[in-house]
Amino acid sequence: MGFETRLIIISFVMLSCLCSLNSSTQQLDDMFEEYALNSLPTRPQTGVLYNASSSLPSNFTGVQVSIVRLRWDSFWRKGANYSGFLMPPRILAYPFFTRLDIVYSNLGNQSSFYYNVPNHTLVAPVVGFNIYASGNLTKLNLTLFGGPILVEFPVPQHEKAKCVMFYSNGTYEMSSMTTQENMCSVRDQGHFSMVVEVPSIPIPKKKDRGKLWKWWVFGFAVGVLGLLLVGFIVFVLIRIFRMTSIAKMEKEAEKNEVLGTTNVGQSKMPLATVVRTQPTIENDYVP
Ligand SMILES: *[C@@H]1O[C@H](CO)[C@@H](O)[C@H](O)[C@H]1NC(C)=O
Ligand SMILES: *[C@@H]1O[C@H](CO)[C@@H](O)[C@H](O)[C@H]1NC(C)=O
Ligand SMILES: *[C@@H]1O[C@H](CO)[C@@H](O)[C@H](O)[C@H]1NC(C)=O
Ligand SMILES: *[C@@H]1O[C@H](CO)[C@@H](O)[C@H](O)[C@H]1NC(C)=O
Ligand SMILES: *[C@@H]1O[C@H](CO)[C@@H](O)[C@H](O)[C@H]1NC(C)=O
Ligand SMILES: *[C@@H]1O[C@H](CO)[C@@H](O)[C@H](O)[C@H]1NC(C)=O
Predict the structure, then answer these.
(1) What percent of the chain has pLDDT over 90?
(2) Residue with CA nearest ligand 1 atom 9
(3) How do strand 64-71 and strand 80-82 relate by DSSP bridges?
(4) How many C-beta atoms lie closer than 10 Å to residue 111's C-beta?
(5) What CA–CA distance (Å, rounded) separates 187 from 145?
(6) How confident is the model at residue 2 (pLDDT cuts 50, 70, 90)?
(7) CB atoms within 10 A of CB 6
């Protein structure tokens, strides 16, 4: 199987597993937006990043959420650089709203609860962002005219790590890291992380166990066969020994043979050479 074929299969598998996940993670995004909105002061300043982590319910301990409000035209002209996401200018967010909210999240130690890649392990928390119309739950669509968005991860660089992008349409993609340290280059809003491929250890282990089991059976069979063979050899040896000793005895016997012998069944029987007296008819019998 070629690499590309495998990639297609992998993408297909990912697509099918994520489509079910998507609705729940979509809800998660909207929930973060709601909590973030509630955490904002009555008159939030544009261009200021507000930390909304403490407004999350207690079951989201370790998850970090923050929000920044920007004017649409400012975002278009200058982009945004908050929370590890470097957004270049000329990102078209539509439909048009005068202000927009960028909600950033870091799923922390709950990352793998929401996002997984088959045969890979996350080596960074899942970080993400979504852009909403200011103050409501209308998610805006993005078209990037000024190059990709760069994501920086809050963990040390990892050799062999790849970027994984979970886009909001439910697909995920993988790419290599950018030449800059610890960065992924992404094309849309969503959630992002770094993964390393795990060598599939559990399956070979299972195979080994299977082999071991087969070896046990094989060994047992060989043992039984060996025992049978040894038994057979011993039996044959005893037979041969007996036959030779019988033959010897016979030879000894033949030397001082008086009577002939004949085979009756398997044993030798003495055979008398003397013919039995024939019955004679009484001549002087007169009826
Ligand atoms: C994961 O690895 C196993 C064992 O190598 C393989 O059978 C399976 O197809 C892989 N899954 C994906 C989605 O690549
Ligand atoms: C946000 O606040 C939480 C505690 O409420 C803190 O742990 C976290 O570091 C803060 N995040 C930022 C980006 O300041
Ligand atoms: C946390 O609680 C909220 C409701 O309070 C629920 O919607 C959400 O699924 C819970 N999350 C986890 C990770 O248990
Ligand atoms: C973006 O912000 C980071 C840290 O906040 C800073 O180191 C970096 O230079 C900024 N990049 C640009 C292009 O402004
Ligand atoms: C945004 O994109 C999604 C899918 O790409 C589409 O279904 C939706 O209609 C778009 N929204 C707008 C306002 O264009
Ligand atoms: C999902 O979104 C990404 C990023 O916008 C895009 O590249 C990809 O083609 C989309 N996939 C589907 C199946 O819509």
Answers:
(1) 52
(2) 10
(3) unpaired
(4) 19
(5) 10
(6) low
(7) 10
Q: Which atom of ligand 5 is nearest to the CA of 141?
A: 1
Of 2-11, 77-86, 197-206, 264-273, highest mean pLDDT: 77-86
Q: Find out whether the beta carbon of 189 lies less than 6 Å from any atom of ligand 2.
A: no
pLDDT at 269 over 80: no
228-241 pLDDT tens trace? 877 777 777 778 77
Q: Which two tokens stand for residue 133?
A: 């119309």
Give CA torsion, residues 190, 191, 192, 196, to 10 deg: -130
Say yes or no to pLDDT of 212 above 80: no
Of 74, 66, 65, nearest in space to 46 by CA: 74
Q: pTM for this one?
A: 0.69
Q: Name the closest ligand to CA 175.
A: 6
Nearest Cα residue to 120 out of 77, 91, 70, 163: 163
State residue 64's pLDDT score.
Answer: 97
Q: Is the CB of 66 under 6 A from ligand 2?
A: yes
**How far apart are the C-alpha atoms of 83 and 98, rounded to whole Å?**
22
Question: Which residue is it, tokens 């399956």?
Answer: 203
DSSP secondary structure code for residue 109 in this structure = G
**Which stretches does DSSP call E strand in the chain?**
49-51, 64-71, 80-82, 85-87, 91-94, 99-106, 120-122, 127-133, 141-144, 149-152, 162-167, 172-176, 183-186, 190-197, 260-264, 267-271
Q: Measured between alpha carbons, how far is 161 from 196 in angstroms, rounded to an integer?
A: 5
For a ligand 4 pocket test, name from 48, 68, 77, 81 the mutation site with the most ligand atoms within 8 angstroms of its C-beta: 81
The residue with tokens 């130690």 is 109
